[in-house]
Specification:
Two copies of one chain form a homodimer. Chain A contains 14 helices and 15 strands. Chain A has 461 residues and is an alpha/beta fold. In chain A, strands 4-10-9-8-7-5-6 form a seven-stranded mixed sheet, with helices on both faces.
Chain lengths: 461, 461
């Protein structure tokens, strides 16, 4: 049976040591695909540790996709996880999951060791002491007023946005809020989505039976005339930083779009500002929400990039008439975010911790970006590629000089333990973009990036 | 300006004292409808307290509907809140909000002082220490495995349900989960909803453009033949305790429905088990999920009744083929519940605190129910009404012997400071029920209930 030694006084919890040991055996091919693991009770007895510890380790291994369970049968090692060179059976590129890759260029992770857990922990205790009655009450449908008020102060001081708490709706992440917007505006309208753009946007619109058109954003001046010729009522855009092109809409195009959409009877702009706080160079352009005088901009943002994707708190700012319509038609929808999280985040924001955390995170990313750009400059890749849109947000793109199809290159990279995505993965319809490799760098470090660059060079030949 | 004295060492936070003082002035008509309140800065300076304290008090007053704010203008007293007898202007019945009523017979509140905040607080600290890395990762779309596993153990030991974590989907409350079910099963199916039933059920189905039929549940044997004659594919029922009738479906009707629906090509039963843990008398009937051998029951439950409506954690158990369909079609939907809450609740459940909390809560409700039934027996009301379905869940009904229309009685009760709802509020189409007053007793006490009974008697004449 599996036998490991634990360091009792290492500060690392036992379950985590066990988790790490089993994971390492899986990655090294010692535990094989579909091999049955010992039962929790057996392993606990064998190793002289508690069953709870084994349970916690197995749960973490299952959560991360190393192990699967079959009811009444037990626990088994997932297929094909052994790392290249260490495995006994051939591995298919698709069988890697995020954690098994040596380098993941496509991850939306946030950096570990940056979030101030001790402060958050203190705030949660205070919230439980001060709001013990309120925590047992139903939540107002727009979200807690105290949280919406804290957001308003923050948005004013950090982004120059003048917002009333009455016009803010809190919801469990952007996908939930997209759905509420479609419910509010109706499926009888035509929605325009940027091409290329993040998968989930069009997936959520399709799931809600919305009528979708895609408009190209390769050339912004073309974009305006394309929308002008179309029957689009509502456009969903990320003017401060499109994913995946990284394009930023200048002031002129913003004004043009606002006036074009403002002239349409059912016209609205959904401004999806997903990573706007994390901008590192260039003059920040104010959100379109701030130049909207006719009540046509719906602003959306979340805390997924700045705090954690596991936090599930998003907010949207509605123009006053839509806020009133929301109250009339959708107020029976309970707010989807726990009041505990809302109170804690309100304190985190209003006592200035959020701004400090963002500044620390920006500093971390600024250094990381500089290091990665240095690695890029040092590598042979500048001869074979062009880096672009590196001034904003958490990703950039590398236009590769190659004839190889993206799918082929992706497969070869995966076989080398590198997970990658390409511009072409996000393009709807025919693709006029070149071979652009996307680099989401939030989860990278210098060494991993160097390894990725070396591998790309090697494969380009 | 408003002047109050505070008790510095009372243990009641200052902001709460200020909140209570202003609220009392509003209810007593001292602060009048639409009267402007002092600015936060002014009031803080005037009372010699910090601006943060005033802010917190104003935020709470706004949250609860006593005060409204107008951007750049300030804070104002809401209209018509002064209690009857104390107000200077006539009050309309509809202008009361939950907190201003002397007695609220329709509230879904949970009892204060029952939830073990100190334990919860300790668990949150442990979760932050032990899962600091995991808390920064995205959440698996079904929810955290550790939480789903804890749920499975709990459901097995407490309700005899054999469930695999693979078949559980975690979501932010039942309305979100209803929506996911409709997305999963499709809007081309016909959904049958109990008549009468809780508003939100049909509101969510309508919002999602589902095709709805209502079926009567006054007489269960009629119910089966009514569904048999209909074109209903999927029924949404609360067999363990319908709201508002309180009816419990017996074993025979459950089997009949299961076999009837099982014979339909697209047939599914959505078993909405919203307050099943809180049953006080009679033999508990196992959930339909446990007698379903053909994979036709979708089971839904939440923690809104047992912990708090502000927690926003629900779960559904899908039959294996629907769980697979969910993975194929809807896995791009991020889980809507923060992982922090999921980890904490997992610990709360698996260490036995949840079961202990439920037992404590049941004991609390059992005593409360006995007290209320005693009050009812002592009052003159048994001569004028019949109490029914008092053996299960958190509400019962009083069939009143009166000719007065429910709407009229409701208005008269409201004018006396008593918020009430009637069976007729939940009936779709023509109403064959008598004048049934609903009593959601979770937020009541003996004195409030006595006051309500006295008032009802007085109004019945």
């Amino acid at each position: 049976m599996l036998t490991y030694n634990f360091e009792r006084n290492s500060g690392v919890p036992l379950y985590e040591q066990l988790y790490g040991a089993v994971k390492s055996d899986i990655l090294n091919g010692i535990i094989k695909s579909d091999e049955k693991l010992p039962s929790k009770r057996e392993l606990a007895a064998h190793l002289g540790i508690s069953k709870v510890t084994v349970e916690a380790a197995y749960a973490a291994l299952i959560d991360e996709g190393y192990v699967y369970s079959i009811e009444k049968k037990g626990y088994f090692c997932e297929k094909n996880l052994a790392l290249p060179g260490k495995k006994s059976t051939p591995v298919s590129a698709a069988s890697f999951s995020a954690d098994e890759f040596k380098v993941d260029l496509s991850s939306n992770a946030v950096p570990k060791n940056q979030f101030p857990f001790s402060i958050w922990s203190r705030l949660t205790r205070e919230v439980m002491l001060n709001y013990s009655r309120e925590l047992l009450d139903p939540i107002p449908y727009k979200g807690m007023y105290a949280f919406r008020e804290a957001l308003c102060s923050y948005l004013l001081s950090s982004r120059g946005m003048r917002v009333s708490p009455e016009n803010i709706i809190i919801g469990a992440g952007s996908e939930y809020l997209y759905t509420q917007i479609i419910r509010l505006l109706g499926t009888d309208k035509v929605y325009g989505i940027e091409n290329p753009s993040y998968h989930k946007i069009s997936e959520v619109y399709s799931m809600n039976n919305a009528d979708i058109r895609y408009f190209d954003i390769t050339d912004h001046s073309e974009t305006v005339s394309e929308i002008e010729r179309s029957d689009i009522d509502i456009i969903h855009i990320s003017p401060s930083h499109n994913f995946p092109t990284g394009r930023v809409m200048g002031a002129k195009i913003r004004h043009d779009l606002l006036s074009l959409i403002g002239d349409r009877r059912n016209g609205y702009i959904i401004e999806d500002d997903f990573d706007s706080e994390l901008r590192f160079e260039g003059r920040p352009i104010p959100p379109m929400q701030t130049i909207d005088n006719s009540g046509r901009v719906i602003y959306i943002n979340t805390f997924s990039k700045t705090i954690s994707p596991s936090m599930r708190i998003g907010y949207m700012i509605l123009p006053p008439d839509l806020a009133a319509k929301y109250s009339r038609e959708l107020s029976f929808n309970s707010c989807t975010v726990p009041s505990f999280e809302q109170y804690t985040l309100a304190e985190f924001i209003s006592r200035g911790y959020y701004e400090r955390h963002i500044n620390r995170t920006k500093k971390y990313y600024r250094i990381l970006r500089a290091e990665l750009l240095e690695e890029f400059a040092r590598s042979p890749l500048p001869k074979r590629s062009e880096i672009s849109e590196s001034q904003a947000g958490l990703h950039f793109t590398l236009l590769l000089d190659t004839e190889m199809p993206d799918a082929k290159l992706k497969e070869m990279l995966a076989a080398e333990g590198i997970k990658a995505s390409f511009m072409s993965d996000y393009v709807y319809g025919s693709d006029s973009h070149g071979h652009e490799l996307l680099v989401n760098y939030s989860g990278l470090d210098r060494e991993k990036f160097r390894l990725a660059l070396d591998t790309v060079c090697k494969l380009l030949g």
